[in-house]
């Protein structure tokens, strides 16, 4: 800027700041020209994606294939070459059931109990998480006093480690915890929340929502702020009802963000483990035993571990996740196309 | 060229010095129930003064790390150089044979020979390590609560039913939430099972199907959990075979009678202090016998160590008579060392209750049943314990009927035996 002022010469601050960038560019210019010449302009994209794909391949795809190989083996040995090939026996063992709705009729009853618990957890947690996050984001998007403070308040639990979250709520909910102390102080009868099957299940859903809601609220909030204000002004001038504004403007324009949130919440809900493991340990009985804990216990925590069975269970869990994600993406496509035609 | 050579030389020197540092390092994976970690540190510091070329690092971990993570490390051919473990027999293929490495194998045989079989592969004469403590499962009564309730503490030969009745009276009188508590552990459940006539070992040495003895006590136990005589909190607090102790409830005066074991004595001595009076009671009786379960923690050398000679030096030092004596006296643990036991111990505590409790546990070792003595060295004991805990806790939580639980226990054990390929 200053260099353009007549009578003044020399480098401006921004020019100086650009020096290292230009230097770096001059270093990579020659190799990049070579890459472009060798692979062509179209091949450049592949070239730049290669490091990322390599990391993805090593840390995601390769373990997936190793896991699949494990699921085809039996015995308690840890190393793949030491394990005997059993084909699909582990899957057959998991599916050996007289009635899939009655875990007690299955050979691996604990697996089906975990599947059932996870299913209920996903339905409840995903629905409530989306609902609470949406409502919270709508409130935080308004002109509130100390809005930044409230946003921080809702986001704060996201910063906590899952173990800390589990411990905090354990101290609140246990027999001599804060909640019972409060109830007792007000003359109510204390209750052993974590010994009660229904309450402990509800606690895992509630705690998980409390711990992660802030993150999803933030994503929805970003979506809300990206909606052009003039649409709302036009609706106001037309005297449109608030509920109609929400259904016809806010919700459709928020759909891409909501879709991301739904997919993330769903994946996270199916994978639930850490805070629940600390809070209830899967109890009472197996009422809060979820799929990931089943896999962990089968593969690592028991004295005679069964990595093959644990691997088969995790492959099935992966398949369910992929199907659910594809289903959601498929369902979202028509609305996206409809939106783009408009 | 000269620059390259200099850099290579510097790299080689760096590599050699770092390798030398590792060569003299011995890592001990250690868990503590009480003060034993601090005592070990003192002893190890003294060893390092005697042997400045060996650096001993103590990795203090929780018991669950030893139970759940160490076996995975060992399967991968990894792990510490020395570890304090309770799962001695089932993992014995991973222990290092110290016989050719220790200074005097005969000393080890003479003093630790009685428990050597607990920690070596069947049929071998390997020296894998030594027991840092011998434990016996048994009960503790909150004497103050009994006195305040005006209920007499049941006598030495009292049955489980006698204890249940008395503890219930105490709890009702003193408004205590739990009359009785028993750790969430298959080991702890096995003493009473054997007292009710259980036998775990089949004719072929593999697990026998669950018998009437086990069924009788487990039925009683689940009934007690349902009617509130036995603490529900501990047994339903987790799924699977996760270990949970009720020690904190006893320390907080919430339990009249607690069935755990001798390793709790130093813990209670430190944490209860003068808050209330407590006594060790030994194991209540069943129709068959009045046995607790022996056991304990052993210090074993791991065969994947890079420094077997240094490891043997550390083990030789920690197994010395005067070192074992000091360790036991300061930690209030019952020693396994024959020489130390014969010469007697002067436990370093002013707590008369702790001293009396240790006396009760020492006496109780004389009345252990044959099966109870066999189980610590039996390959399948942890398999049976795991199945017992998993299914009994489901029955206690009201998830399955007792008959279903018994069928599942047998099925779980059979599946594990099949999976092991043995």
From TrEMBL, chain A:
Residues 115-328 form the ABC transmembrane type-1 domain. Its main location: membrane. PROSITE patterns: ABC_TM1. InterPro entries: ABC_transporter_permease (IPR051393), MetI-like (IPR000515), MetI-like_sf (IPR035906). It is found in: Cell membrane. It holds the Pfam family BPD_transp_1. The keyword Ligase does not apply. GO terms for cellular component: plasma membrane. PANTHER family: ABC TRANSPORTER PERMEASE PROTEIN (PTHR30193), INNER MEMBRANE ABC TRANSPORTER PERMEASE PROTEIN YCJO (PTHR30193:SF37). Belongs to the binding-protein-dependent transport system permease family. This is Alpha-1,4-digalacturonate transport system permease protein. The lineage of its organism: Bacteria, Pseudomonadati, Pseudomonadota, Alphaproteobacteria, Hyphomicrobiales.
UniProtKB/TrEMBL annotation, chain B:
Its main location: periplasm. One of its GO terms (cellular component) is periplasmic space. Residues 1-23 form the signal peptide. It is found in: Periplasm. Keywords: Periplasm, Signal, Transport. It comes from the Bacteria. Belongs to the bacterial solute-binding protein 1 family. Part of the ABC transporter complex UgpBAEC involved in sn-glycerol-3-phosphate (G3P) import. Binds G3P. The complex is composed of two ATP-binding proteins (UgpC), two transmembrane proteins (UgpA and UgpE) and a solute-binding protein (UgpB). This is sn-glycerol-3-phosphate-binding periplasmic protein UgpB. It comes from Mesorhizobium tianshanense.
